[in-house]
Amino acid sequence: MDDGDYCYPHLLSNQKLTQNLGRVEMDSDGCLQLCLEEVANGLRNPLAMVHANDGTHRFFVGEQVGLVWAFLPDRSKLEKPFLNITKAVLTSSWEGDERGFLGITFHPKYKYNGKLYVYYSVEIGFDERIRISEFRVSANDMNLVDHTSER
């Protein structure tokens, strides 16, 4: 890589890169070891973990069935899902099925415009399609998506 800070051994000496990794160590052979910490559990096929970059320090985890959960900085999961598109998402109980909720991203200016984008499988008639939708956060609750805003 052209950026030396991302290349070993600079990773260990760059505090910006290691400040949120937990414990970072080097073994006797000089190999980098990261000690990971569990931040969420009890989820069904989680496949996306993102933050909104809105200063709230929440993170969001999306499940293949069409649910997105908001987690607070103390790692507690909110009781109601941030987004629930389970009725629209095409998925099945087959192990290894690659259909369903497939991704989420927040607009770079989400803090100001409340826009987010979701990528998921749908069934239209007898056809299976991929849908990319824009949603907005609820005007009344920053922890819920306005499901009627989908476009």
Could you describe the 3D structure shown?
The chain contains three helices and ten strands; from the N terminus they run ααβββββββαβββ. The mean pLDDT is 84. A hairpin with a 2-residue loop joins strand 8 and strand 9 (127-137). The longest helix is centred in the N-terminal third of the chain and has 4 residues, at 10-13. With 151 residues, the chain is mainly β. The strands form three sheets. A four-stranded antiparallel beta sheet has the order 3-4-5-6, with no helix packed on it. The protein has a four-stranded antiparallel beta sheet with strand order 7-8-9-10, with no helix packed on it. Strands 1-2 form a two-stranded antiparallel sheet. It has helices at residues 10-13, 15-18, 110-113, and strands at residues 23-26, 32-35, 46-51, 59-63, 67-71, 83-84, 101-106, 115-124, 127-137, 145-146. The relative contact order is 0.12. The radius of gyration is 19 Å and the shape is globular. Helix content is 8%, strand content 36%. It has two domains: 4-35, no CATH class; 46-149. This is HHIP-like protein 1. InterPro entries: 6-blade_b-propeller_TolB-like (IPR011042), Glc/Sorbosone_DH (IPR012938), Quinoprot_gluc/sorb_DH_b-prop (IPR011041). Pfam families: GSDH. Residues 43-146 form the Glucose/Sorbosone dehydrogenase domain.
Radius of gyration: 19 Å
Counted by DSSP, the helix tally is 3
Report the β-strand fraction as a percent range: 35-45%
Number of domains: 2
Regions with little confidence, pLDDT below 50 for 5+ residues: none
Q: Which of globular, elongated, flat, extended, rod-shaped describes the shape?
A: globular
What is the helical fraction, as a range of percent?
Answer: under 10%
Instruction: Tell me the span between the first and last alpha carbons.
Output: 39 Å
How confident is the prediction overall: mean pLDDT?
Answer: 84
Protein name: HHIP-like protein 1
InterPro entries: 6-blade_b-propeller_TolB-like (IPR011042), Glc/Sorbosone_DH (IPR012938), Quinoprot_gluc/sorb_DH_b-prop (IPR011041)
Organism: Ameca splendens
Domain Glucose/Sorbosone dehydrogenase: 43-146
